[in-house]
Automatic annotation (TrEMBL):
Taxonomic placement: Bacteria, Bacillati, Actinomycetota, Actinomycetes, Propionibacteriales
Domain of life of the native organism: Bacteria
Name listed for the protein in its UniProt record: AhpC/TSA family protein
Alphabetic keyword roster: Membrane, Transmembrane, Transmembrane helix
Bilayer-spanning residue ranges: 6-27
Gene3D superfamilies: Glutaredoxin
Length: 183
């Protein structure tokens, strides 16, 4: 009887260990799929968020922020046509889109381009600031920051054109927007 109980305990132990190994494998596989899904940019088979920013014609709320080069940025400072881009440090399409946006905006003039980099505590916005800083005024803020809230941004990346405090165009692809003429 003792031999039978010992064998039964060994079998149950082996089944328990195999079950634990299977569970670790499933968790590892789920993490890989989660990472792969996060790296998929918006494609033709995916629908972009419908309202990533307030609709064209909407007025931007009052806000005050400071750019990374120490220049105050307010709604009133956006009097001329300005190309605006919102990027999140934790978003893969933002990482891919920031250099392309910077290249697109290079001919416009730094005063007519505003880039907002969203970084929460523990996230480092330095690479975005480096990439965007030559072609745009860059503001770094959190997800509930004053500029993001003033534009009603709900998805990243998102882009818009603003003039005289009013959004004149918005899109999730900056190539779809009119390019402000250099001042």
């Amino acid at each position: 009887m003792t031999t039978f109980l010992t064998a039964l305990v060994i079998v149950v132990g082996i089944v328990g260990v195999l079950n634990l190994l299977l569970l670790f494998g499933v968790v590892r596989r789920l993490k890989e799929h989660d990472q792969a899904i996060a790296n998929i940019p918006y494609g033709p088979l995916q629908s972009p968020p419908a309202d990533s920013m307030r609709a064209p014609g909407s007025e931007v709320d009052e806000f005050t922020a400071l750019s990374t080069d120490g220049v105050p940025v307010t709604k009133d400072s956006l009097t001329t046509e300005t190309l605006v881009g919102f990027f999140s440090v934790s978003c893969a399409p933002c990482v891919e889109g920031a250099p392309k946006f910077a290249a697109h905006a290079a001919g416009v003039g730094k005063d007519a381009v505003l880039a907002i980099v969203i970084a929460d505590e523990g996230e480092d916005p330095a690479e975005f600031v480096r990439v965007l800083g030559d072609s745009a005024r860059v503001v770094v803020e959190g997800y509930e920051g004053p500029v993001t809230t003033a534009f009603g941004v709900t998805a990243f990346p998102t882009y818009g054109v603003v003039a005289a405090g009013r959004i004149t165009a918005s899109a999730i692809e900056f190539t779809a927007l009119p390019v402000p003429t250099p001042a």
